[in-house]
User: What shape does this take?
Amino acid sequence: MANLTVVTGFLLMGFSNIWELQVLHAIFFLLIYLVALMGNILIFTLISLDGKLHTPMYFFLKNLSFLDLCLISTTVPKSIANSLSRSCYISFWGCVSQLFLMVLFSASELFLLTVMSYDRYVAICQPLHYELIMTRGACVKMAAASWLSGGLFGALYSTSVFTLPFCGSKEVHQFFCDVPPLLRISCSETHFALDVSVAFGIVIGVFCSIYITISYSHIFSTVLKMPTRDGRSKAFSTCLPHLIVLMVFTTTAFIAYLQPPQESDSLLDLLLPMFYTVVPPTMNPIIYSLRNKDLKITFMFIYILYILIYHFNMCLLT
Assistant: This one.
């Protein structure tokens, strides 16, 4: 059996052996990345600049945008570079870093979505106690706990995976380093530490999902009792997008990590990770910006201010 130290790198899977299709894949992923990049940077910037948006809900949304930006930047740029360079190689430590960061940002996002559901529960079901409960200090601690917990899972997963021996094929059936495809190419038949790590992650994920479901059941019960239609519409507009993103994120991650290793490659194995690493970072800014009146107003104000400054500078130059 080969020793782990002899492993110098892996080969990530390309989407096609045809050069034209590789270019199309690179362009497609580049467009997705630019949409996610601009959307998340825009939300992060708007919330940072507008003092009216310095509330707990927008504080967590700002953290979510930064997490999404980091998550999609961990996997997509490398895939684009591989497609254009016709090289699928990734170094051993590059693969370790990619897996660690992917798990860190994904787990942190799940914890942050759980915190955001608690924030909405307090805001809608206990509005009189909202300012007392959701203080600035409490929000910072909850966000920090989400990041630290994600880092713990990242270290746990990456350590469990890369202590396994890889003595066979070095070709990873995925466009980034993830636990299931790496497990498939390991020549170890026993991986107790990894099984415990994955089981622990699934238990925590199920707990977060149950907690969010209970929180939203209380939220929807309270919303349906609201006398005004506008109040119900505003509450649903902030909660439903959160639920949609969460369902896509958790469901696809659970399926990818729970399905038994397959000997043959399947299209499902390739597509599933896109729904928890690419789709949420791309859709989050679109959903939250299109459904949020405050963000629209702030964006229009900054845009008009930019136009005025631009024309003022042009007048000075002329």
